[in-house]
Amino acid sequence: MPHVRSIWNGAISFGLVSIPIKLVNATESHSISFRQIHTEDGGRIRYRKFCEAEDKEVSGAEIGKGYEDADGSIIPITDEDLAHLPLPTARTIEIVAFVPADRIDPLQMDAAYYLAAGGAAAAKPYTLLREALKRSNKVAIAKFALRGKERLGMLRVVGEAIAMHGLLWPDEVRAPEGVAPDTDVTVNDKELDLADALMDTLGEIDLTELHDEYREALEEVVAAKAAGEAPPETPEPAKGGKVLDLMAALENSVKAARESRGEGAEQKAEAEVTPLPARKTSRSTPKQTDAKKSTSTAKKTAAKKTTTSARKSTSKSTQGSKKTASATKKTSTSGTAKKTTTKKTTPRKRSA
To answer: pTM score, two decimals?
Structure first.
């Protein structure tokens, strides 16, 4: 990253693998800074550094570091002394563990940095560590020394780069004692439903759309002053006050959120908050089930009766047909028998 100046050069210690890297800032501040001036004539106010022993002003090149002991004496500490600290992390980001990302408390998050590969030789091990972090869905916990003290860091993948977040030591995070309300408060279901409706109405947002409106307003004021014009008028702040009715405040919030999204005109006929459908009690459900069962049973019984009647009718007609056929056969057989008998009794004529 030649366009960004590195603030620290060292290496990542990944077991026996050493990855040369350069540490660069991952964030930048866009806030507008002011200078102190003399209000009478607009002159700059500057701070000058004086030596107490000689009572004279000194330059930055003559200023060093010193540790104040308990008795008030100053012990000089040079850059060479700091360079020989007995720490393995003096110029190394030493990875000590790999943990799931949700194990890290956001309260511990500090400044963010990008780790740039330090040369062509670092490309292979840098890529190996990056892909290993991707596949494991974990982050690396590391120790490193920066600006005179040892720090804790978290390495994770951002795009195709490895980023490191400085972490506060666990004992540097205060416990939230005495922060939450110490009075007993009960929140009912209707209030939670309204809060859910407000959350759903506000919905999500693309974080890239957010910007610093205060800085933009401040730039307008500076531009107007520089041009000799009057600064822009300040809009009237929203009327505030003590919220006495939480339900009304939630309902109004939902209404305002819908109107801001252009949903108010389409939902004028609707209530401010659509009530949730009433839950079916355990008593009403069996009744509806029994009714369905009885209706189904009646249908099945009627169907069975119809089928049975049809079968009986068919059976009767079949039996009638059989009887008719039998009678016909008997009649036919009887006629045949008579003819045979008649033929037998008729005498034959003798020849002359």
So the answer is: 0.58
